[in-house]
Amino acid sequence: MNPYIAELVGTTILVLLGNGVVANVVLAKTKGHDAGWVVITLGWGFAVYTAVLCVAEYSGAHINPAVTFALAVAGEFAWGQVPGFVAAQMVGGFLGGMLVYLVYRAHYAVTEDADAKLATFCTAPEIRGAVDNLFSEAIGTFVLVFAVLLTINPTFLLGTSESMEPIEVGLGSIGALRVGFVVLTIGLCLGGTTGYAINPARDLGPRIAHAILPIPRKRDSDWSYAWVPVVGPIVGGIAAALAFLAIPAA
């Protein structure tokens, strides 16, 4: 699979499943209605796992512009590929939001709460304050990217007693669980302030979908807040990359 297509597909899957669990919990007359925050965070964690599982082999499964920028700053990714990856992720976020609407269309029609409908596309703070909201998004993304950069695969020593060579062994599909658990942890521990977008494509792409879809009795798309889940994650990701580069070599 072409890596740009892989990023589009991976981000689409991420948003379809992640926003899908939000829709299942907050929209009216769903099987999961009012299941609560723990279900949402679990759903998002496993959404990340599933997306990474599907495309990691083809693109590295960034599925997040903040991760792409951070890897480039850390010297782990070519700057020339950054624009294409970010564009693919944004399109994937938009498509994922559109698919959530199609899956839950009947439930959008019977849901009266316009804020709940918006929540199935993008994030919003519980207490508005630009500085606090920006910091929440930045610190959550810092944790995500720092953990990704520090992730290592098991290494075994092979050879004779005179000459031992370290061989890195991948974890295959199980390796994707590591990122899913990090996102789950961030959601449970830090997500109560802004809803932990920690990913510009996960927030801006679906927000655009919300703006253009013919959702019954919807509200505005909260554009005055939309910059926070874009800028915050980028700042947090770059800060994590700089912190990673500052770690002394072993």
Structure description:
The chain has 250 residues and is mainly alpha-helical. It has a single domain, classed as Up-down Bundle (Glycerol uptake facilitator protein). 63% of the residues lie in helices and 4% in strands. It has 10 helices and 2 strands, in the order αααααααββααα. Strands 1-2 form a two-stranded antiparallel sheet. Strand 1 (155-159) and strand 2 form a beta hairpin. The longest helix has 24 residues, at 3-26. The chain starts with a helix and ends with a helix. The mean pLDDT is 93.
Most strands sheet: 2 strands, antiparallel
Q: Strand pairing plus helix content: what structural class? A: mainly alpha
Order of helices and strands: HHHHHHHEEHHH
Tell me the number of strands.
Answer: 2
What's the helix count?
A: 10
Average pLDDT number: 93
Global geometry: globular
Kindly report the name of the CATH homologous superfamily.
Answer: Glycerol uptake facilitator protein
CATH fold-type name: Glycerol uptake facilitator protein
